[in-house]
Amino acid sequence: MVQLSTPQPARQANPTIKAQALAYLIFERPDLAAAEKFLTDFGLRIALRDSDALYFRGTGSAPFCYVVRHAEQARFVGMGFRVASRADLEKLATLPGASVIRPLTAPGGGEVVSLTDPAGFTVEAVFGQTAVEALPHRQPLPANQTDQLPRINATQRPPHAPAEIIKLGHAVIEVADFQKVCAWYTGHLGLIPSDVQVLPDGAPIVTFMRLNLGDTPADHHTLAIAQGFMNTYNHSAYEVVDVDALGMGQRILREQGYRHAWGIGRHILGSQLFDYWNDPWSCKHEHYCDGDMFTAERPTGIHPVSAEAMAQWGPAMPRTFTAPKMNRAALRALWHSLRHSPDVTLRKLITLKRLFG
Ligand SMILES: [Fe+2]
Fold first, then answer.
1. Residue 7 lies in a domain
2. Quick one: CA dihedral 341, 346, 349, 355, positive or negative?
3. Res. 37: pLDDT tops 90
4. Above 80 in pLDDT, residue 3?
5. Which element (helix H / strand E) includes 209?
6. How many domains, in total, are found in the chain?
């Protein structure tokens, strides 16, 4: 079995497997109709409506990329990663706490091994899904630029409709045991840290990790892990075709009365144009386009963390964007992590508070 090495974040020489794609996210919601309304206004499409679950897809060839199961409490359950072979499933099935290989009862079928990461999130490894035919989507609008004028005697009229989502791009989680969780993803799924944000004392606080696809370019990040005092969902992101899709998507979501979180702006790490919206359970969902693509060759970047380091331009990041929801469960988690997590210290939390307000 792979020896998980720290300090993290760092790439590991011989990971158990190299994940090939972020396949889907799994949520539990008390109101499936409200979830469906938000997600379709956000730009996903229904792939399958089950008695107690909804499956959504983008226009791409993934049979689904988002599952909502009915449950009393709203909860982010975890993620599915596509793996390269059945042999990879067999390797993962030997890890502590792994399930046996079983059929995946979801659109596209295939087989799945269910794991739990050290933060308690479900991680499903999937192989053998049948891809679906991609759906047509609007092509990026031809922009007239100073030296290039593709549009003469013609106008720009993007449709007044939800932003078409092409694919699930990435998920971001906050964890207490940052070292252990990073080591699990780099060691077992072969993720590579693309960029790491650090505190003034050098302690890593956010790591943006990509898939190791060798010479095939991969999204700058597929999973990002942030140091928090509890294990929680931060946001997930979905690719749209261009900046007009971001802008029209914003208009539609605003008209439908949803709560805006942050945007439109351009990130620094990953370079995406972004726009963030809250779903009915105050969970952030991001539209993005024009992200960086890195091959496995590119080394890890190290950068100081701050609120200003999150975007090159756009409105200032609202204070509410990173502020944890302080309820009784959060206070309990804070107390527990301060006592038991080697990565959570009062000093670190005070520094973060100072940097992010
Ligand atoms: Fe993001």
1. no
2. negative
3. yes
4. no
5. strand 204-210
6. 1
Tell me which DSSP letter residue 145 carries.
B
Distance 149 CA to ligand 1 centre (A): 32
In this structure, is residue 48 part of a structural domain? yes
Distances (CA, A) of 35 to 32, 160, 168: 5, 22, 17
CA of 236 to the centre of ligand 1 (A): 6
The pLDDT > 70 percentage for the chain reads 99
Structural contact between residues 68 and 54, judged by C-beta atoms closer than 8 angstroms: yes
The rounded distance, in Å, linking the Cα atoms of 286 and 261 is: 9
Say what the pLDDT of residue 308 is.
Answer: 86
Determine the structural domain holding residue 122 and report its residue range: 21-132+162-356
Residue 137 lies in a domain: no
CATH code for the domain of 220? 3.10.180.10
Is 151 inside a domain boundary?
A: no
For 174-200, what is the mean pLDDT? 97
Average pLDDT over residues 139-149: 95
pLDDT in tens, 39-62: 999 999 999 999 899 999 999 999
pTM more than 0.85: yes
Per-residue tokens: 108: 């596209």
pLDDT digits (tens, 9 = 90+) for 64-108: 999 999 999 999 999 999 999 999 999 999 999 999 999 999 999
Task: Please answer whether residues 43 and 236 qualify as being in contact, where contact means their C-beta atoms are separated by less than 8 angstroms.
Answer: no
- Measured in Å, residue 287 CA sits from the centre of ligand 1 at 8
Ligand 1 centroid – CA 218 distance (Å): 15
CA of 82 to the centre of ligand 1 (A): 20
Q: Return the closest-CA partner of residue 281 out of 235, 222, 230, 227.
A: 235
Contact 254, 330 (CB under 8 A): no
State in Å, rounded, how far the first CA of the chain is from the last one.
43
Q: Please list the alpha-helical segments (H only) found in the chain.
A: 32-42, 86-92, 178-188, 243-255, 328-340, 346-356
